[in-house]
Write a structure and sequence with these properties.
InterPro entries: Spore_coat_GerQ. Pfam families: Spore_GerQ. This is Spore germination protein Q. There is one protein chain. The chain is globular. Strand 2 and strand 3 form a beta hairpin. By secondary structure, it is mainly β. 10% of the residues lie in helices and 30% in strands. It is built from 2 helices and 5 strands; from the N terminus they run H-H-E-E-E-E-E. The protein has a domain of 74 residues: SH3 type barrels.
Length: 113
């Protein structure tokens, strides 16, 4: 298959030589010392503090109803992209991590590296 490129004010031209073979990409190897730091990811820290009461601060772009929300509640579960929070009245929230700004706790948190 021949590909042509158009240039302003010119005629179609065929590229000189396109590389047909590309080296396959291999993922870089991550040293074991760095892999051990994965516990510092926010979802893992939240999992280590499951059941604790915290105040969660969220902000949302382009939301006409509200652009920020504060939820005070208990951590029920945390995944890579979400967190489940239950407030003291029992209402449960499934919130996306991309909207989470920060969390405050009134007690010491578990943080083991």
């Amino acid at each position: 298959m021949v590909q042509y490129y158009w240039y302003p004010g010119g005629y179609p031209q065929q590229p000189q030589q396109m590389q047909q073979q590309q080296q396959p990409m291999t993922p870089p190897q991550i040293p074991a010392a760095i892999r051990g730091q994965e516990e510092s990811y926010i979802e893992n820290i939240l999992r280590m503090n499951k059941g604790k009461l915290g105040t969660f601060y969220f902000t949302f772009e382009n939301n006409k109803e509200w652009n920020a929300k504060v939820i005070k509640g208990f951590i029920e579960a945390a995944g890579r992209d979400h967190i489940i929070i239950s407030d003291p009245s029992g209402k449960r929230y499934l919130m996306l991590m991309i909207y989470l700004d920060y969390v405050t706790f009134d007690e010491e948190i578990n943080y083991n590296l």
